[in-house]
Amino acid sequence: MSGNRSRKETLKYRRYIKKLKKSQKDCQFCDVDNNTKYEVEQTEHFWVIKNIFPYSLWDEMHVSNHLLVIPKEHVDSLKGLPDSTAVEYVRLIEEYESKGYNIYARAPGSAIKSVIHQHTHLIKTDKQRHRVLVHIKKPYFRISF
Which pTM was predicted? Predict the structure, then answer.
């Protein structure tokens, strides 16, 4: 299962993406350095930031924290990372995995990947599965407890 946002967050995210496409902005992740209020950590080659449109569910569990690992250099896949950068990436991912974060990234050709700049989701859950979860995609409606 992939992540889901709440109805409110989904609507905000869709409006943001629509506005972004109209603005013809090259890449919003290339400008992360200009918006440090979401920054959690910065390494030589990566930013770790809070996701401004976090998932609310992951694997049927409530998400308690949702971060993104973003390369400072614009690449569309992990294959595009130079070797030294790739080693730093693995060490960074290991660090967050040991803190209980799930690791998720979409492939470059994924139809639902909204940002071309490679990024990896770090998703921490409360480890409590919802007993009941009803999710209807259209019209978007979800009940969980």
Answer: 0.80
